[in-house]
Amino acid sequence: MSRPEDTLPPDLFYNDSESRKYTTSSRIQKIQSDMTHRALELLDLKSPSLILDVGCGSGLSGEILSASDEEGTPGGPHIWIGFDISSSMLGVALEKEVEGDLFLADAGQGVPFRAGTFDAAISISAIQWLCNAESSEESPAGRLSRFFNGLYASLRRGGRAVCQFYPKNDEQKKMISAAAVKAGFGAGLLEDDPGTKSAKTYLVLTVGGGELDGDITGVVKGMEGVDVLDQRRKVKDRRRPEDRKGSKAWIIKKKEQMERKGKVVKATSKYTGRKRRIAF
Amino acid sequence: MKLLTLNFLTCAIKTCKSSPSSFPLHPRDAELEIVEADLNLKFLENILPRLMWDELRVVVDELGLPTLPPTIPTRADLVAPSSPTSSSSSSDPAPSQTARDLHRILIETCVREGKLVCGNCGHEYAVKEGVANFLLPAHLV
């Protein structure tokens, strides 16, 4: 199946008919609500909070955020603020009379809220759209960095953000998480059903400070069925062995250097760099 | 758009980010409506330390609503003093009149139509049916 990201920009792709299709399809509704519940589980909110929904669309996830604790939303009912770039999607949300406040805005242009506004942020199937730039004045990297910088500033210390997205390839996954790390987040990826057709990628972002327990490894601690793959670079304290002075590799390097200078250099053989036999 | 949201919203233009006058955005030609909602005491307690009270008073004055008290209520003001007659107050404290007023202003009062104007650059953000348009033309990003 072709990716909608490759066909049209989001504000044009989600036109009236596509928005309606998206919102009324029970299959999409089911997937969205599952993902929202998973994201809420990762956010681990204890009390009613102010939440930002990036790419809220028709408010499918917002309806879950507004639900109370008894209806299955941990810590709810939350107050949420959502923005989306597609006016048709927002139109559907208005018809449904969702409880959150809606904005028509482009996440790639930043997040227009003052510092420390939100307890948490959630984004379901949206940020892969940021990897596409529709005009020559913008670049995917610029859009991602504006978004993550704005998001980092608008979250309170110790806040969390969970962004579920559909990466096109590993490169895109890396680009998005690198942009988040550059903005200051502690970032980690959680993958559900990896390697299958229904793989879901969650970018779990943490803002330092507060009562938070480290990065994503602290978030998933105590969750069942989660394997932690730490790919952070280990600090290398050992120098590369071939650089050691007097080794064969070092001698060959020096000989090449001398040869390039035009000096007469003995040919390299199997005896090069070998120790002499002890005479006695 | 709730007045609560307006208390957090700044101008989206990059050059305004560093200017203190880009917050709050000033409502102009605003048409207000009341959207009834359930009072959520825990949320009010949670959000109270993050409110910018002086700016909220300015916005409320500009909208022509009754003036708010000069100082921000404390967390203790939100809970009604538990009377000895009510026995269930220990588990679920009742909201006070202050909490009710705050809920009315922050959550239930919404800007339906109008404009939001940045105090720094004068950019106008249109609000239609409660949805504000924060899309910027490419040269302002």
Automatic annotation (TrEMBL), chain A:
Q: Give one Pfam family, short name only.
A: Methyltransf_11
Q: Taking every annotated instance into account, which residue ranges of this chain make up the domain 18S rRNA (guanine(1575)-N(7))-methyltransferase Bud23 C-terminal?
A: 220-277
Q: Does the keyword DNA damage apply?
A: no
> Which residues does the annotated region (Disordered) include?
1-20
Q: Does the keyword Methyltransferase apply?
A: yes
GO process terms (BP): rRNA (guanine-N7)-methylation
Protein's name according to its UniProt entry:
Williams Beuren syndrome chromosome region 22 protein-like protein
Automatic annotation (TrEMBL), chain B:
Tell me one GO molecular function of this protein.
protein heterodimerization activity
Q: Which InterPro entries match?
A: Trm112 (IPR039127), Trm112-like (IPR005651)
Start and end residues of each stretch annotated as Disordered = 74-98
State the family it belongs to.
Answer: Belongs to the TRM112 family.
Report what the protein is called: Trm112p-domain-containing protein
Low complexity: bias regions = 81-96
Q: Which residues cross the membrane?
A: none
One GO BP on record is: rRNA (guanine-N7)-methylation
